[in-house]
Amino acid sequence: MRGKLKMTTFAKYMCGVVAALFLVALFHTGSAFAEDATQAAAAQSAQMTEFQVAQAEEPKAEEPLAEAGEGAEPEATLDTGDTAWMIVATAIVLMMSIPGLALFYGGLVRKKGVLAVLMQVFTIVCLMTLLWYAVGYSLASTDGGALNAYIGGFDKVFLAGVGADTLSGTIPESVFFTFQLTFAAITPALIVGAFADRMKFSAVCIFMCLWLIVVYVPVWHWVWGGGFLSEDGVLDFAGGTVVHINAGVAALVACIFLGKRVGYPTENMAPHNLVLSVIGASMLWVGWFGFNAGSALGANGAAGMAMLATQVATAAAALSWMFVEWIVHKKPSVLGIISGAIAGLVAITPACGFVDGWGALWIGIAAGVLCFFCSTSIKRALGYDDSLDVWGIHGVGGIVGAILTGVFAVEAIGGTAGLLEGNPGQVLTQIWGIVATIVWCAIATFVILIITNILVGVRVSEPVEIEGLDINLHGETVQ
Amino acid sequence: MRGKLKMTTFAKYMCGVVAALFLVALFHTGSAFAEDATQAAAAQSAQMTEFQVAQAEEPKAEEPLAEAGEGAEPEATLDTGDTAWMIVATAIVLMMSIPGLALFYGGLVRKKGVLAVLMQVFTIVCLMTLLWYAVGYSLASTDGGALNAYIGGFDKVFLAGVGADTLSGTIPESVFFTFQLTFAAITPALIVGAFADRMKFSAVCIFMCLWLIVVYVPVWHWVWGGGFLSEDGVLDFAGGTVVHINAGVAALVACIFLGKRVGYPTENMAPHNLVLSVIGASMLWVGWFGFNAGSALGANGAAGMAMLATQVATAAAALSWMFVEWIVHKKPSVLGIISGAIAGLVAITPACGFVDGWGALWIGIAAGVLCFFCSTSIKRALGYDDSLDVWGIHGVGGIVGAILTGVFAVEAIGGTAGLLEGNPGQVLTQIWGIVATIVWCAIATFVILIITNILVGVRVSEPVEIEGLDINLHGETVQ
Amino acid sequence: MRGKLKMTTFAKYMCGVVAALFLVALFHTGSAFAEDATQAAAAQSAQMTEFQVAQAEEPKAEEPLAEAGEGAEPEATLDTGDTAWMIVATAIVLMMSIPGLALFYGGLVRKKGVLAVLMQVFTIVCLMTLLWYAVGYSLASTDGGALNAYIGGFDKVFLAGVGADTLSGTIPESVFFTFQLTFAAITPALIVGAFADRMKFSAVCIFMCLWLIVVYVPVWHWVWGGGFLSEDGVLDFAGGTVVHINAGVAALVACIFLGKRVGYPTENMAPHNLVLSVIGASMLWVGWFGFNAGSALGANGAAGMAMLATQVATAAAALSWMFVEWIVHKKPSVLGIISGAIAGLVAITPACGFVDGWGALWIGIAAGVLCFFCSTSIKRALGYDDSLDVWGIHGVGGIVGAILTGVFAVEAIGGTAGLLEGNPGQVLTQIWGIVATIVWCAIATFVILIITNILVGVRVSEPVEIEGLDINLHGETVQ
Amino acid sequence: MKLVMAIIKPFKLDEVRQALTELGLQGMTVTEVKGYGRQKGHTEIYRGAEYAVNFLPKIKIEVVVPATVVENAVDAIVAAAKTGQIGDGKIFVVPVEQTVRIRTGETNDSAL
Amino acid sequence: MKLVMAIIKPFKLDEVRQALTELGLQGMTVTEVKGYGRQKGHTEIYRGAEYAVNFLPKIKIEVVVPATVVENAVDAIVAAAKTGQIGDGKIFVVPVEQTVRIRTGETNDSAL
Amino acid sequence: MKLVMAIIKPFKLDEVRQALTELGLQGMTVTEVKGYGRQKGHTEIYRGAEYAVNFLPKIKIEVVVPATVVENAVDAIVAAAKTGQIGDGKIFVVPVEQTVRIRTGETNDSAL
Ligand SMILES: Nc1ncnc2c1ncn2[C@@H]1O[C@H](COP(=O)(O)OP(=O)(O)O)[C@@H](O)[C@H]1O
Ligand SMILES: Nc1ncnc2c1ncn2[C@@H]1O[C@H](COP(=O)(O)OP(=O)(O)O)[C@@H](O)[C@H]1O
Ligand SMILES: Nc1ncnc2c1ncn2[C@@H]1O[C@H](COP(=O)(O)OP(=O)(O)O)[C@@H](O)[C@H]1O
Question: What's this model's pTM, rounded to 2 decimal places?
Answer without folding.
Answer: 0.91
